[in-house]
Specification:
The chain is α/β, with parallel strands linked by helices. It is built from six helices and 14 strands. The chain has a single domain, classed as Metallo-beta-lactamase, Chain A. Strand 5, helix 4 and strand 6 form a beta-alpha-beta unit. The longest helix has 12 residues.
Length: 209
């Protein structure tokens, strides 16, 4: 059975997730926002199969190159943001100089596609393209776990006032890609506490089911 551990990183309190397979020998990392000693210690002795990025804003990518150098693992990102890793203007690090220096990581190795099924850690992950917060935002669905990035939060949604954001697209993504999932699916967002699809359909004031 897949297990996960959340690490809250950086000035914007971004949730990074370490996923570990049933044999406790393999791992993947979702959204390593900054280099972090505790996260690296958790990965010691494990084979890291992938770095999975829900999108390429600076607070989700700051630890990418550190992990890729250490573990030699591929980086996955949607092609609509393929240039963002290496461009501080596009990933926002050039704008938020009060919380970060410029971030320029290497290019992605693999590009997500909507509906794609990834076999990692002995599990199947389905890629859900959820544009709105950013053009290449994706959610990653594994069983009853949804790693939602910055699309859907507990009682909130991702901001859409950054370059490439679109409020109508985000609402459509949430209704058509996320709210159609079973109510019991656990939403593990890019910031803040977990929730469920059912809770957000009932209680989220920003996007009604």
């Amino acid at each position: 059975m897949l297990t996960f551990q959340r690490f809250t990183l950086g000035a914007l309190q971004t949730n990074a997730y370490v996923l570990i397979d049933a044999s406790r020998t393999r791992a993947a990392v979702i959204d390593p926002g900054t280099p972090d000693a505790a996260l690296l210690r958790r990965l010691e002795g494990l084979k890291v199969e992938a770095i999975l990025l829900t999108h390429a804003h600076f607070d989700h990518i700051g630890g990418v190159d550190d992990l890729r150098r250490r573990f030699g693992c591929p980086v996955y990102l949607h092609a609509l943001e393929k240039d963002w890793l290496g461009d501080p203007v596009k990933n926002g690090s050039a704008r938020w100089t009060d919380v970060t220096g410029p971030i320029a990581a290497g290019v992605p190795d693999v590009y997500f596609e909507d509906g794609q099924k990834l076999e990692l850690l002995g599990e199947t992950f389905e890629v859900l393209h959820t544009p709105g917060h950013s053009p290449g935002s994706v959610g990653l669905l594994c069983g009853d776990l949804l790693f939602a990035g910055d699309a859907l939060f507990r009682r909130s949604v991702g901001r859409t006032d950054l370059p490439g954001g679109n409020a109508d697209a985000l609402a459509r993504s949430i209704r058509e890609k996320l709210y159609v999932l079973p109510d019991g699916v656990i939403v593990l967002p890019g910031h803040g506490p977990e929730t469920t699809i059912g809770e957000e359909k009932r209680e989220n004031p920003y996007v009604r089911a």
